[in-house]
């Protein structure tokens, strides 16, 4: 008898019929004698609808109230799901994040899980119930409701699997696994059977939204085997597991893109110690995460500094930077929201030289200008004009032979 955590995303529970189909599927595991814990997202489109509603009330919605609103989407699906299971003649119980006691910090709308109480869930499981937990939400020590950031239900599922010492965590979604690139923009994308935690971590951080990045880091830390698979078919999906020798054979295992960042350039800054700290401290204090940073030296004692921030934080970041730039005597601040970061990822990159050159050649051949570059041990990212996203992803995917590995 195994303990299995199964998470179903928004498209999998988009309407009553789909919720019933998911309940049937979970009950198969239950009937086979497994203890089943189900994590659900809100119905597809609901979370976006709440964001729109909130923006009609307040220009920048109050984060605490935003979380009270956002958490309602998952409350709807878990209750309906439990009803469906009961209608099928089995016992189920739906639980919100604060009922389970999924403790988080106080960072509303992007909270981190700090601890999970497994007691209540275990008690219900011992009574033979299917336990249905609301994804994406938790509670602070003061009893305030929090949410974990978009896509956060994956993180709830993997964190629960770790806390409950589950045998496996299934992530059910609208694609049948992790692909070499987003199958929705590249028809030659191919499903991979196995991928290492480390590669998945990079893919997720660089834009492959099939798994939320925090879910992957928890899976890696607690060695939770994650199976990403389709809700709508029975086919085997992708196992996210520890790295092995076979994975190093190919230099590149995936291509990602992220259109969710914006670029800011501060020009003609004085090239003296302390300037970067002066510029970035107020940005960090506002909770804005800076990603790529590039500094170029100009003639004389001047330098240009370019960096990226998440698109939703662009306007706020611009305001802060403009103020600091004026205080420290920089010449000007410019920026663009029309950028895209395309990246190639692979553990095999460590022992295959020349991968970066091939990437630059491919982009050059397509006439795509590279605005920024960053590399790590197992990834290379280039910032380009957003309008070339699809072209860049498809050309890189084909150039590295990912369609037929
Ligand atoms: P869910 O609502 O089930 O959480 P998401 O929309 O968050 O589903 O994630 C699934 C989507 O991730 C797919 O429909 C696909 O468009 C996208 N995606 C991006 N990159 C990849 C990739 N490398 N492999 C699979 N899917 C990807
Ligand atoms: N409903 C939330 C979202 O749309 C969480 C999730 O689905 O993972 O982001
Ligand atoms: Mg998701």
> Unreliable stretches, pLDDT < 50, 5 or more residues?
none
The N- to C-terminal Cα distance equals 36 Å
Structural class: alpha/beta
Strand content: 25-35%
**Mean pLDDT value:** 95
Radius of gyration: 23 Å
Structure annotation, total helices: 13
Largest sheet: 8 strands, mixed
Helical percentage: 25-40%
Listed once per kind, the bound small molecules are: adenosine-5'-diphosphate, aspartic acid, magnesium ion
Give a topology summary.
Elements: E1 3-8, H1 16-31, E2 35-40, H2 46-57, H3 63-70, H4 72-87, E3 92-95, H5 97-100, E4 102-104, E5 113-116, H6 119-126, E6 130-134, E7 137-139, E8 145-147, H7 153-163, E9 168-173, E10 194-196, H8 197-205, H9 213-222, E11 226-230, E12 238-241, E13 254-258, E14 261-270, H10 275-285, E15 293-297, E16 302-310, H11 314-327, E17 332-336, E18 339-345, H12 355-365, E19 372-376, E20 379-385, H13 389-399
Parallel strand pairs: 1-2, 1-9, 2-6, 3-6, 9-11, 10-12
Antiparallel strand pairs: 4-5, 7-8, 11-12, 13-18, 14-16, 14-17, 15-16, 18-20, 19-20
Magnesium ion (MG) binds at residues 9, 151, 154, 209.
């Amino acid at each position: 008898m195994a303990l299995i955590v199964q998470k179903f995303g928004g498209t999998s529970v988009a309407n009553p019929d789909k919720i019933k189909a998911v309940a049937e599927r979970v009950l198969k595991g239950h009937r086979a004698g497994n203890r089943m814990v189900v994590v659900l997202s809100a119905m597809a489109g609901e979370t976006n609808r709440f964001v729109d509603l909130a923006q009609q009330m307040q220009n920048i919605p109050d984060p605490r109230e935003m979380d009270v609103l956002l958490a309602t989407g998952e409350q709807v699906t878990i209750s309906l799901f439990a009803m469906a299971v009961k209608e099928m003649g089995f016992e189920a119980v739906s639980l919100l994040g604060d009922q389970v006691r999924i403790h988080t910090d106080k960072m509303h709308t992007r909270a981190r899980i700090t601890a999970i109480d497994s007691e209540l869930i275990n008690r219900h499981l011992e009574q033979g119930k299917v336990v249905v937990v609301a994804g994406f939400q938790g509670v602070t020590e003061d009893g305030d409701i929090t949410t974990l950031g978009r896509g956060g239900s994956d993180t709830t599922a993997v964190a629960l699997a770790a806390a409950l010492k589950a045998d496996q965590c299934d992530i059910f979604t609208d694609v049948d696994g992790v692909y070499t690139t987003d199958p929705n923009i590249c028809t030659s994308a191919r499903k991979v059977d196995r991928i290492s935690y480390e590669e998945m971590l990079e893919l997720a951080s660089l834009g492959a939204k099939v798994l939320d990045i925090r879910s992957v880091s928890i899976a890696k830390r607690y060695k939770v085997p994650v199976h990403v698979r389709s809700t709508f078919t029975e086919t085997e999906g992708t196992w996210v597991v520890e790295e092995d020798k076979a994975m190093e054979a190919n230099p590149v295992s995936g291509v990602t893109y992220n259109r969710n960042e914006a670029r800011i350039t501060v020009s003609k800054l004085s090239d003296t110690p302390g300037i970067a700290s002066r510029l970035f401290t107020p940005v960090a204090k506002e909770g804005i995460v800076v990603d790529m940073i590039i500094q170029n030296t100009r003639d004389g004692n001047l330098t240009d500094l370019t960096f990226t921030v998440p698109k939703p934080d662009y306007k706020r970041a611009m305001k802060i930077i403009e103020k600091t730039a004026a205080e420290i005597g920089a010449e000007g601040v410019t920026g663009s929201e029309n950028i895209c970061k395309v990246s190639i990822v692979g553990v095999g990159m460590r022992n295959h030289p020349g991968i970066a050159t091939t990437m630059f050649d491919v982009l050059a051949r397509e006439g795509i200008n590279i605005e920024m570059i960053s590399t790590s041990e197992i990834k290379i990212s280039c910032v380009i004009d957003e309008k070339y996203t699809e072209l860049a992803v498809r050309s890189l995917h084909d150039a590295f032979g990912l369609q037929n590995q």
